[in-house]
Amino acid sequence: MIESAQQPSSVLTRLADSPQHRVANEKTHRVCELPELLCKRYKIERLLGVGGMGAVYRARDLLREQYGDPDPYIAIKTLNEEFAEYPDASALLYTEFALTSRLRHGNVIRLHAFDIDPASQRAFFTMEELKGPTLDQLLEQHPDGLPWLEFRSVALPLLEALTCAHEMGVLHGDLKPSNVMLARDGLRLFDFGLGQPLKGLLNSLPRLSRKRIAAWTPRYAALELLNGEPLTTVSDIYGMACILYELSSGIHPYSRLTAKQAKAMEQDKTLQKPAKLPAHCWPALRTALAFDKENREIDAQRLLDAFTAPRPSLLRRICSRRPG
Ligand SMILES: Nc1ncnc2c1ncn2[C@@H]1O[C@H](COP(=O)(O)OP(=O)(O)O)[C@@H](O)[C@H]1O
Ligand SMILES: [Mg+2]
User: Fold this and answer.
1) In Å, how far are 158, 201, 225, 227, 321 from 231, measured between CA atoms?
2) Rounded to the nearest whole angstrom, what is the distance from the C-alpha of residue 37 to the centroid of ligand 1?
3) Measured from the CB, is residue 134 less than 6 Å from ligand 1?
4) pTM to 2 decimals?
5) Which atom of ligand 1 is nearest to the CA of 174?
6) 178 pocket-lining for ligand 1 (C-beta < 6 Å)
7) All domains of the chain, ordered by start, with CATH?
8) In whole angstroms, what is the distance from residue 223 CA to residue 27 CA?
9) Do residues 82 and 70 touch, judged by C-beta distance below 8 A?
10) Does residue 4 have its Cβ closer than 6 Å to ligand 1?
11) Rounded Cα–Cα distance for residues 195 and 215 (Å)
12) What is the pLDDT of residues 59-109, one digit of tens each?
């Protein structure tokens, strides 16, 4: 299983500076090359980031530039070498494109177009270029977690994005801090590369086996996914709950263990409310962190409601602490 990992920025800068825009996957160190010009239109400028499956580049759209667009810059996602070699690599990337572009929400990445470069046969899609830290970078700056109001300003749009995705029948499949960015004009959820449509929807899209594409991060994966069961909305809820807990406390709820390991150690019995999290949000977050999907009885909208609800007044909080 490949654990999706963010490249340290020094490595990124080094790679981005290389003339052939080389990308190395941290684990495999395999290098692949992307042509400098795709579809005679997109001029690759530099690497923006790499994950377990893909690489994202900044590019200049020469067509936009030709028409005097003041901002001709876009981002391009393509698969890294390991995945680009799959016979159905373009279908893999197309599924991500098709699922994401269905979601019209201010907190979901906006995609432009899917294409295949005729010369190199590389599949790619274009999207808005985001500028800002990913949530794992934000967490590095806040090792003790975010204060309540700051936490809320991240949690609410993130939960709105997931609520929209689930309402539109799209499962994300790989929720983790490095797949969320705090862009200058607001939060964006991205990387639906392991996403799937809800059962019965979008049946004509290629169905890719999650087992074959083991590029997800185990510590954010719900127990049922680790056990090879299908992805559902409550599997996404587990990943989301881990992100929210980590944002509030600075630490992973289960000491960075997988749900399987943490369950074996009965870590749910000692799970503590993050100190900065108001008590009225805790029951919902704790439910979302349940190991067994049968006990994870909460959806994204109800989680959102719990964090949106105003904090009870001081008087009510004092009264609710009194016995009897
Ligand atoms: N639209 C974008 N603008 C800027 N950077 C991006 C964009 N999309 C992705 N990135 C960067 O590239 C990294 C890898 O992208 P991602 O879609 O998560 O690929 P993977 O499927 O391999 O995990 C992200 O963590 C982020 O740092
Ligand atoms: Mg990713």
Assistant:
1) 19, 14, 7, 11, 39
2) 20
3) yes
4) 0.88
5) 23
6) yes
7) 19-127 (3.30.200.20), 135-189+217-308 (1.10.510.10)
8) 24
9) no
10) yes
11) 12
12) 999 999 999 999 999 999 999 877 777 778 888 899 999 999 999 999 999
